C-alpha cells in the first residue's frame, strides 16, 4: 500500500513534527494511525495515511452515511433528523453571507446530494462534485442531479461561482494547497467560500482525546483548529469573515465515540456529553465540535 508520508507542513513548510496521539480506525479496519503536529504553526494532520488512489476501501461500508444514506441504527436516524434542520440553516447562511437570493453555487463533496438539491429547489444554479460513484448514482436517482466526479474541480472556469461550499469535506482532501488555489481562482471577486470542518479544540475532542470519533483516521487527513483554518485562508488570498458553531455535531460525534468505546448506554452518555459541549460552545464558539468558516477574497 502506498502511503502519504508528510515531510513538510502544508501550512508553513516546517519539517519538524511531534506525535500527539495514535488513533484507531474504529469505523472500518481497526488499523492505527498517528496524528502529528507541526512544531512551528501547530497544524495537526494524520501521518502515513493511504494515498488518495488507495484510500477507497476505508470508505467501503454500507454504514458510511455520507455515501450510502443509510437509516440503519438509532444514531443514523438522528443524523437524518438533524440534517433536515441543517439544510434550512445552511441555506440561510448562504443567503446571508452572499447577500443573494439566487446565484451560482458549487458544492464540493456533495455526498448523496441533499444540500445541492435543496439549493437547486430554491432557484440556485448548482454544480455538484462528488468522488464516490455510489453517492453520485444516489443523487441522480433520487434528485435527478448530474453530479460530476472529483476530477471536474480543476476544470471549472475562472470566477464562475458566487458561492463555493465544502460541508465536512476539506479534511478529506489530499491535495490541500492545490485545492485552496483552485477555490480562489473559481470564485467571483465578491464570492463567498463556506467551509465546515471538525474542531480538535472543541469540548468533546478535549474530553475524548484519541477516541474522539471526528478524528476519523485515516479518512480525515487534516485536523483544523480555528487558528490554522484562518491561516490557510490567509495563505491563499482569503479573509475570514464569519465563524459559526455547529453545536448539534457534538451530540452525534459523542454518541459515536461512546459506541467506539463500547460504553454501556452510548446514546445516553453521548447525549450527556453533547449537552455539556453545547453549553461550552454557547459560552465560547471556538469550542464547538464543528465550525463553519465563511471566507471572502482579499
TrEMBL record:
SUPFAM superfamilies the UniProt entry points to: S-adenosyl-L-methionine-dependent methyltransferases
GO biological process assignments: methylation
Cited Pfam families: Methyltransf_23
Swiss-Prot/TrEMBL keywords: Methyltransferase, Transferase
MF GO annotations: methyltransferase activity
The protein, known as: Class I SAM-dependent methyltransferase
Native organism taxonomy: Bacteria, Pseudomonadati, Bacteroidota, Bacteroidia, Bacteroidales
Cross-referenced InterPro entries: SAM-dependent_MTases_sf
Superkingdom of this protein's organism: Bacteria
Signal peptide stretch: none
Amino acid at each position: 500500500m502506498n502511503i502519504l508520508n508528510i515531510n513538510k507542513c502544508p501550512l508553513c513548510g516546517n519539517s519538524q513534527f511531534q506525535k500527539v496521539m495514535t488513533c484507531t480506525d474504529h469505523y472500518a479496519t481497526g488499523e492505527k494511525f498517528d496524528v502529528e503536529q507541526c512544531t512551528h504553526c501547530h497544524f495537526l494532520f494524520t501521518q502515513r495515511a493511504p494515498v488518495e488512489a488507495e484510500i477507497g476501501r476505508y470508505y467501503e461500508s454500507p454504514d458510511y452515511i455520507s455515501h450510502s444514506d443509510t437509516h440503519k441504527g438509532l444514531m443514523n436516524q438522528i443524523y437524518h433528523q438533524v440534517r433536515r434542520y441543517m439544510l434550512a440553516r445552511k441555506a440561510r447562511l448562504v443567503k446571508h453571507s452572499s447577500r443573494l437570493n439566487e446565484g451560482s453555487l458549487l458544492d464540493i463533496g456533495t455526498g448523496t446530494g441533499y444540500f445541492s438539491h435543496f439549493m437547486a429547489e430554491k432557484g440556485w444554479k448548482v454544480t455538484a462534485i462528488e468522488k464516490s460513484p455510489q453517492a453520485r448514482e444516489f443523487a441522480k436517482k433520487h434528485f435527478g442531479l448530474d453530479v460530476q466526479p472529483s476530477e471536474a474541480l480543476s476544470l471549472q472556469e475562472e470566477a464562475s461561482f458566487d458561492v463555493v461550499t465544502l460541508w465536512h469535506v476539506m479534511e478529506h482532501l489530499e491535495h490541500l494547497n492545490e485545492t485552496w488555489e483552485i477555490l480562489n481562482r473559481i470564485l467571483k471577486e465578491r464570492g463567498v467560500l463556506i467551509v465546515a470542518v471538525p474542531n480538535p479544540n472543541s469540548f468533546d475532542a478535549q474530553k475524548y482525546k484519541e477516541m474522539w470519533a471526528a478524528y476519523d483516521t485515516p479518512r480525515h487527513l487534516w485536523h483544523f483548529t480555528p487558528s490554522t483554518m484562518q491561516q490557510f485562508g490567509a495563505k491563499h488570498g482569503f479573509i475570514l469573515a464569519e465563524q459559526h458553531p455547529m453545536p448539534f455535531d457534538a451530540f452525534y460525534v459523542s454518541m459515536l465515540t461512546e459506541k467506539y468505546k463500547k460504553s454501556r448506554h452510548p446514546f445516553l452518555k453521548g447525549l450527556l456529553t453533547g449537552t455539556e459541549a453545547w453549553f461550552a460552545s454557547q459560552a465560547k464558539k471556538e469550542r464547538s465540535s464543528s465550525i463553519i468558516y465563511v471566507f471572502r477574497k482579499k
